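Amino Acid Chain and Its Fold in Token Form
===========================================
What this section holds: a protein sequence and its matching fold, both as plain text.
Structure line: whole-number tokens from a learned vocabulary of local backbone shapes, matched to residues.
Purpose: to set a sequence beside its fold so the mapping can be learned.
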Amino acid sequence: MKVSISVFSFTALLLAGIVIAAAAQEQVRAPMPIGRRVEIKAPLGLPPVPIPPDNPPTAETIALGRHLYYDPALSSDGTVSCASCHAPQFGFADNRPFSAGVGGKLGGRHAPTVINSAYNPLQFWDGRAPSLEKQAEGPIANPVEMAHSLDGVVNRLQRDPKYVALFREAWGTDQITIDLVTKSIASFERTVLSGDSPFDRYYYGHEKKALSPTAQRGLKIFMDTKKGNCATCHTIGKDYALFTDNKFHNIGIGADMTGKFADIGRCGETKNEDDMGAFKTPTLRDIAQMAPYMHDGSLSTLKDVVDHYIGGGNSNPHLDKQIHSLDFLTFDERDDLKAFLESLTGRLPRDLGPPADLTQKDKESAKGK
């Protein structure tokens, strides 16, 4: 009996070693970008952009990712692109509470912005993706979004001579894989940065007139722990401000009259009851461009957002301890706070819109309808 166990253990260890060795060999063989390396420069108010070692940005991968981001060919019926739900004209988010996917099917959460998503250690409202690369896979295979399959996307791109040439130029291979698709999209998304706002020029650039007196008063309310206390979650640092702690909080959005949630948020991933109804803190940068607000798109305006906090959120057993009524703020102070939020609209880089060939293709498609 002891001999059988020993032989079994040896066999199991041998098989495990083979699997590990094969995975390591595959990792070694994974293509690296071959084009011109570029530095993604962070604007005033933002820290250096985190870059994964296996996906350094190049001009070619960024250009390829930009093309893939705007191409509806990634969806099963060729009607939905990444930009359909994360559109530049709406702050790289959506102006609808829920986005429409293939066949008009509606998702269950408001599309979060791509702006400054390079700084998020976890992606999606519930943090289920550990990187921009893994996030890009989700919508492709989601039946109510692009409704495709990862293999189906690869096969479609592989049949397109234009894409074969673009991948060869960017990655040095004629063999397209979903890994290279998502890495390219992620490289483009890391360039979608917004900083150098009136707030940044005032706070970090020390331009006294960059921020209006109203917004300056709003900033004080925002940071004052005895007033707005907003910076507890929407952080402002000494050298930069992400306006998010990248953590998950229950602020009472989506709770019914009994305190129950139709969408349990982070709890669905962690299975931890303490995470019930908790969602990732969104960045406030460019927030004035991103209505409606919250994970369910239930608040239509910035005034509605301020009013939600004035009321102390919707009561429920898991409400964050930092959430409390702000009804002591005067109406002028509430207006000041809103003015400060509007001052966070920054400057995006150029060339973030759709490539010329896709724009022309859309025009021709529209004429044909």
